Amino acid sequence: MKPTVLIPMVLLILTAPSQLKAQLLEKKVLTLEAAEKIAAAAVAEAQRRQATVVIAVVDDGGYPVVIKRLDDTQVASVDVGIGKARTAAIFRRPSKVFEDQIKNGRVAALALAGSTPLQGGLPLTVDGKVIGAIGVSGNTPQEDEEIAMAGVKSLMAAAKPETPKVIYFPAAKVSQAFEKGMPLLEIANYKVHASHRDSPGIVEVHTRDTDIIYMLEGSATLVTGGTVVDAKNIDPEEIRGKDVRGAVSRVITKGDVIVIPHGVPHWFKEVKGPLNYYVVKVRAAN
């Protein structure tokens, strides 16, 4: 072999590892030690409430790392708890999102492979990346989620404080979100939804979330205020009804902004669609 050919080949061999390393992504993983601490925080919260639950901590692929079944907890809650955690891990959002979609009429969410559309599963994030999830089952849906949140908070407390990061959504991702009518961002105290409607909704009351709506496309008759007819609590923080008395009706259209404080009934009674709008949900403290 000629020297002139040999030299480039040697250089290629020497530089290949560094080039390969530059092309690989680094990611944080959920260790057994961290999972044990997260589960322990949730167990402590469950014991404080005298709750009988199963607590499951899974990795980012939805596979169990730690499972805790408190004394006298029903056996059926084991698979349900794991399912809630897996849903939060592989879909990168709280399992309650899918339960809400089904309650609001999007029954297609039942067909999502690997999902358990029940409240009580929360993703575990570090530096904005999901490293796993925690799921709790055995008590009321709201209490299950609050116990899971104790595990999430323990991870947040253990993480090093850092400067908040700018969150960017490219246009393609935003368009995709509007097509499906799905959340863009969900954090503990606020959410950003890319909402889409083709038909009227039902009367809603959020007991803790204030909705800030910005209309992008279409128009609708929005009914706000008044008293809900046949009000039903679908969970401790959400009320639904079939009508309202004494409400105010207004037509909202592209460019309009409306703020609906928590506790105020609201209803998209008539939709001249398709209707696309941003909703920023700001959660009030307990």
Q: What does the model show?
A:
The protein is of the alpha+beta class and 286 residues long. The protein has two domains: 32-158, Haem-degrading domain (Beta-Lactamase), CATH 3.30.450; 171-283, Sandwich (Jelly Rolls), CATH 2.60.120.370. The protein has six helices and 15 strands. It has helices spanning 3-23, 32-49, 77-90, 96-103, 141-158, 171-180; strands at 54-59, 64-69, 121-126, 129-137, 182-186, 190-197, 203-206, 209-224, 227-229, 232-235, 238-241, 243-245, 248-253, 257-260, 266-283. Strands 5, 6, 8, 13, 14 and 15 form a six-stranded antiparallel beta sheet that branches. It has a four-stranded antiparallel beta sheet with strand order 2-1-4-3. β5 (182-186) and β6 form a beta hairpin. α2 crosses α5 (141-158). The longest helix has 21 residues, at 3-23. The radius of gyration is 23 Å and the shape is globular.
Please provide a brief summary of the model.
This protein is an alpha+beta fold and 286 residues long. The protein contains six helices and 15 strands.
Say how many strands there are: 15
- CATH architecture call of the largest domain: 2-Layer Sandwich
Reported for the largest beta sheet, the result is:
6 strands, antiparallel
Q: What level of helicity do the residues show? A: 25-40%
**CATH-defined fold name of the largest domain:** Beta-Lactamase
Residue fraction in strands: 35-45%
Q: List the helices and strands in order.
A: HHEEHHEEHHEEEEEEEEEEE
Shape: globular
Tell me, what is the CATH class of the largest domain? Alpha Beta
* Domain count: 2
In terms of per-residue confidence, which ranges show pLDDT below 50 for 5 or more consecutive residues? Answer: none
**End-to-end distance, in Å?**
76 Å
Number of helices: 6
